[in-house]
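INFO worker-7 received task bundle
INFO bundle size: 2
INFO processing item 0
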Amino acid sequence: MSALLKAATCRRTPKCGRLDMAGRRPYRTAVFTGLIEEVGSVLCIRKSDGGAQLQVAAAAIAQKIDIGDSVAVNGCCLTISARRAGQLTFDLLGETLDRTNLKALRPDSLVNLELALPADGRVGGHFVQGHIDCAARILAFEQSGADHRLEVELPSEFAHYVTRKGPIAINGISFTVAEVSLTSLTVWIIPYTKRHTNLDRAQVGDLLNLEFDILAKYIEKMLPPRAQ
């Protein structure tokens, strides 16, 4: 197993932002692979001045995890604050609501769920951190034969992270970019992926969470600053 995978998956169910007994933030992080394990249903979302509390029905995943474990919800890494009878509760920061499509959730909304990748797990998609870069709207969602073509707006400040045949996570799903322009990116969706994710209900105008490739971000960091 690669050193990168071992370092990123310190234990079977890493924590997102959890503090240790001394109140310090441990040097561990969750990592995901972009393969959705269950589609949950929102029970309620209670918003407050500083954030929100999200409750999701997820019968399968709820049996496999504990309070404090990490779950990607529409691709956003969240920590379970409570669990009971097939229900999961998450506390959301204001920053999370501002940056993701979780702010648009309503009762009965569907959310993509993925457990953190265990150290001995298979990377079926690509490395996904669960750190959403932005939420972007669907520009086109069209069927072509058995498949669907999905075009999503691409904010200019993130366009340099996207390349044809490169990876991208959309609502937590690992995709390969098929087309890219100055203002949008396009992926193709096979029938299995559409049926087994919340893209089955997606419509033009909906917000989707985007996470761009971590390798592209590190390369950008190592290169000299770009000319403005």
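INFO item 0 finished
INFO processing item 1
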Amino acid sequence: MGYRVKITYIYHSSFFVEFPECNFLFDLPHGDHLPKLGIDVLRKSFNSNPLFVFFSHSHDDHFNPDIEDIITPFTSEYKFIISYDIYADYASRFGNNTYILEPEDEVNIDNIKIRAYESNDLGNAYLISFNGINIYYGGDLAEWIWPDTKNEEKEFIQNYFEEILKELRLQKIHIGFSNMDPRLKNFGGGIKFLQMVQPDLFIPMHTFGRYDHLIKLKQIDMPLDKEIFIYSKIGDKIEKYIDV
């Protein structure tokens, strides 16, 4: 048994994921982090399926407070899964169709199981289990090693990130979203995520609209049944059959 999934790159860390029964939208950004073309691509992606909108945290490059105004002209059945910090600042923007998650929370929404992991920056990462498919969306949970990061802090960041990866490796991740931030020498741990977790389909994110560095992912020796979505512009898509 399996499912065909289609994933559309919106911008930065935002993706629209289509399954036969429902759709997921991850971390639609706001302001300068969301080009008009990204909105145009998103509008063309909607269909009659129920929509689940995930937000990992409240940073502008991951959260759009105008989300309801954006999606309601195109879909009538939708639910929000948001982090605790978003609700603290934007409670009036959300209604009864909203689920607020803190780290380690687990919920089941319409047979979609969601677990929140604590980010080492802000908010949550999510492990989503749906019809036997495991999807990991990292948000800002990453290996944040900056040039001025002190050794003790660096060790803590690396250890925490690797502990999460070791746990994910035991889960059989079919689709994994993790950071490939071009500002960082280690890209925020994306390559380490790919090598340790080995998802069936790896989606690099947190690219700030820069794509040249993603070509480095082609140089990684991976099993033949693993695939990487190397996009180069807004609106790029990938389709994959997930065998479960």
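INFO item 1 finished
INFO post-check item 1: The chain has one domain: 2-243.
INFO post-check item 1: The mean pLDDT is 96.
INFO worker-7 idle
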